[in-house]
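Morning run. Coffee first, then this:
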Amino acid sequence: KIMKKMNSIVTRQSGWVKSILLFCLFTILPSTASAQCGIENIAFKSGEELAYDLYFNWKFIWMKVGTAEMDTKMVKYEGKDAWKSYLITRGNDKIDKFFVMRDTLLSYCDTDLSPIYFRKGAHEGDRYYVDEIWYSYPHGNCQLNKHRIDADGEEHWKTSTYKSCIYDMMSIFLRA
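And here it is:
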């Protein structure tokens, strides 16, 4: 729609006006497409907690397999106000015989719910691993500095940059 309106305006103007309009169009549009990850928090307050049961569903059979607890509070992260949230999941004794599940997720987000840091420590089955992500937003992009310690203790580092916003499991819960 914007392109049609701009095209209509440009075709009615003289050469130098067309050049200025096209310059403005191509310098303004990329910035509107860049990562603007924050939103206003209208859903929760500091100190809210959530506890729920985890179920496995197979057709008409529902079996409780564990529990989960989530907590969110306002804290200081590197000297700035931030939302700290964590989620702890735990399988019950019945399911542990087949598959052990112990996950701890930790997330820090800016006051506008833009992710800052994420950590997942997972004991799943017979392996344990840790994933970490540090977020930054250079030049309107979303940059992730990712760190993984796998089950063998081997460390892996990777940096990725995206034009759109990227969220982890916890920060997307806060946005929802």
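The helical segments are 2-11, 15-33, 93-96, 169-175. Good start to the day.
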